[in-house]
Amino acid sequence: MARVNGEMVVAIDGPSGSGKSSTSRMVATRLGLAHLDTGSMYRALACAVSRAGINPQDEPDRVIDLAGSADIRVDTRPGYDTVVINGVDVTEEIRDPRTSARVSAVATIPQVRVLLVERMRDIVERNDRRIVVEGRDITTVVCPDAQVRVLLVADPAVRMARRARELGDDVDQTQMHDQIVRRDRDDATVSQFETPAPGVTLIDSTSLDLDEVVARVVALTEQVG
């Protein structure tokens, strides 16, 4: 099993359904690194916003206040993925389709992104900069100085098929399609995830299986490690 010594930050960007989460967990496990799913932090905040009865479109300032004050705790051990906000375990709730439908309204508030990016960077530092970080804007905003920076993309039809497999037989296909298309559209207003920034490696996973994608990312770490 490949392992790295010393500092190693692996930043993985990409749209919904591109395989970021599965790839990141496996890379972290193989390299003996921590793992941070930054999307889970936005989802946790969306859960807290909903619990507080806040309408993000009408009350963005209340969302910003909550983002600044909320106690968000994420387990960075690969495969654990526990998320707690203000003492409430929302690990299961953040994967609920209703949360998926709400998260963009929270995540596209610019000041919310600023506040959560600060927290993400703190988590990277607390893990001694030995971590795989995945989400939006990771290679350009959160960890622009990461040793390995990857933009993971895939054909939209493939992304929807993957998401359907994750959600199981009960998934509403129309709802899932709308969520992925809408997430792409909404997130594009605050982040860039289709064209790699300078120094970022593009990996198109459309015709690759998970092991092949993971192998490519691990190979990149070996080149710089």
From TrEMBL:
Residues 10-222 form the Cytidylate kinase domain. GO terms for cellular component: cytoplasm. GO terms for molecular function: ATP binding; CMP kinase activity; dCMP kinase activity. ATP binds at residues 14-22. Pfam families: Cytidylate_kin. HAMAP family: Cytidyl_kinase_type1. This is Cytidylate kinase. It comes from Cutibacterium granulosum DSM 20700. The lineage of its organism: Bacteria, Bacillati, Actinomycetota, Actinomycetes, Propionibacteriales. The gene is cmk.
